[in-house]
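Quick one:
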Amino acid sequence: MLIHVPPDSSVLAMDVHKNSISTAILEPGSTSLVTDRIGTDEES
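Output:
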């Protein structure tokens, strides 16, 4: 599936699991993703 994203828009993706939440952001004009992972344990 292709999704059109206007060139001046950011893209946010999330993947949610029982033990973690992963995110990725693609900023306008960038070719690399900024990613992060958040655990669901007490320390996180």
